[in-house]
Amino acid sequence: MEIDLKGKINDLFNQVSQGAKSRGYRAANVLRSASLEVLRGQRGGKIYRKPFTKKATYQASAPGEPPAVRSGTLRRSWQPRAQSEKEGGSVTVHPAIWTDVKYAPILQEGSPKMEPRPFEEPIIEKAKPEIEAIFGQPYLN
């Protein structure tokens, strides 16, 4: 009886690799959901009039708080992304979210005129338990 051990190992590797990629996309979606939660709610900063309105106001974030929602552009802009790399006998998966909103880095890092409004670490911390559970599940049945 002959067994194609290399073929079976290759099939198992491909199965685990596909599972890891799928989990990467799921984890990226968890990050996006966490961003929606972190970038909402009441803030403790000053109250300002919304631009181009007569009476509408919003409460800005205080230094150290995640940014307040004024228009919702930053909050809606996050897109999930999962990249994977095969190298030798291993697969590395990088779940992430990204935004093309130009002022996001300024809010995160601050500027000479504004203290930082960090949001990256709170998003990661919010998503971390669920992402760990996703990647902690068995890869083979």
SSE layout and pairing:
Layout: H1 5-38, E1 47-49, E2 57-59, H2 73-77, E3 79-87, E4 90-98, H3 104-109, H4 120-136
CA-to-CA gap between the ends?
A: 25 Å
Largest sheet: 2 strands, antiparallel
Question: In percent, how helical is the residue content?
Answer: 40-55%
Oligomer: single chain
Mean pLDDT metric? 92
The H-and-E topology, N to C, reads as HEEHEEHH
For the CA atoms, what is the radius of gyration?
A: 21 Å
Please, how many helices?
A: 4
Number of strands: 4
Number of domains: 1
How much β-strand is present in the residues?
15-25%
Shape: elongated
Strands across the major sheet, in which order?
1-2
Structural class, from helix and strand content? alpha+beta
Low-confidence stretches: none
Description:
By secondary structure, this protein is an alpha+beta fold. It has one domain (5-41, 68-136). The chain is 44% helix and 17% strand. It has four helices and four strands. The strands form two sheets. It has a two-stranded antiparallel ribbon. A hairpin with a 7-residue loop joins strand 1 and strand 2 (57-59). Helix 1 (5-38) packs antiparallel against helix 4 (120-136). The radius of gyration is 21 Å and the shape is elongated.
